[in-house]
C-alpha cells in the first residue's frame, strides 16, 4: 500500500462555517467564538489526518494568518491560497505543489470540517482506494450528496468538484464511491445538527474544548 499525500484547504475563519454561527456561544453569534470553533474543526481534522499511518505528507492551504500560525506551531505545513479563489482552486493549488515535489504519490483532498474523524477510518478508506481498480475514488458524506475525501492515483489530475452535489459530480468525473462505514470520515459539519451528530461519535479535543464552556452550544 503506497502512502498518500493530502491537501486540506481551510477558509478564512470569519468566512468559514456561516451556518454554525452561534453554535459555540449558545446562539450569541460572537465572531471570536465562531472563529475559535472553525479553527478547532480544522485542528481536529488535521490532527487525525497526521496520525493516520498512510498519510505521508499533509499540506494545508489557507490565506488566514491565524490558521497558518496555529497549524504551523504544531508542525503542519501551510501555504497561502493560489491565484484563483474558491475551494476547488485551493485543492488544485495544493495538489499542484505536492505533485511538483513528487509526481509518484497518490493524492487525497480532504475536507477540513471533520471533528469526529479517526485516523484508523482514514487509513481504511485509503486502503480501500488502493485495493480498488479505480484511478479515482471518493467518500460521500453522511447525507450521500457531498464529498469528504477525494483520492486520485499517481499521474492523475485531482479535478476537484466540491460543492453542492459533489458526490454526483465526482462520480460523473469517473471517481468510484467507496462504501465503507467510516462514520467520522463521513460526518462533515455545516450546521448545528451536524455538530450534534459529530458529538454523538465523539468530537476531537480541540472542538470539545471550544464547546465545553457553552451550556447550550448545539441549538438549531
Question: What can be said about this structure in brief?
Answer:
With 220 residues, this protein is α/β, with parallel strands linked by helices. The chain has 8 helices and 7 strands; from the N terminus they run βαβαβαβαββαβααα. The chain has a single domain (4-211), classed as Spore Coat Polysaccharide Biosynthesis Protein SpsA, Chain A (Alpha-Beta Complex), CATH 3.90.550.10.
Mean of pLDDT: 93
Which percent band covers the strand fraction? Answer: 15-25%
CATH class: Alpha Beta
CATH level-4 homologous superfamily:
Spore Coat Polysaccharide Biosynthesis Protein SpsA, Chain A
Q: Which topology does CATH recognise?
A: Spore Coat Polysaccharide Biosynthesis Protein SpsA, Chain A
Distance between the termini: 42 Å
**CATH architecture call:** Alpha-Beta Complex
Number of domains: 1
Q: Mind describing the biggest β-sheet? A: 7 strands, mixed
* Structural Rg: 16 Å
What oligomeric arrangement do these chains adopt? single chain
**Residue runs with pLDDT of under 50 for 5 or more positions:** 215-220
Question: How many DSSP-defined strands?
Answer: 7
Q: What's the tally of helices? A: 8
Shape field:
globular
Element order: H for helix, E for strand: EHEHEHEHEEHEHHH
**If strands are numbered along the chain, what order do they take across the biggest sheet?**
3-2-1-4-6-5-7
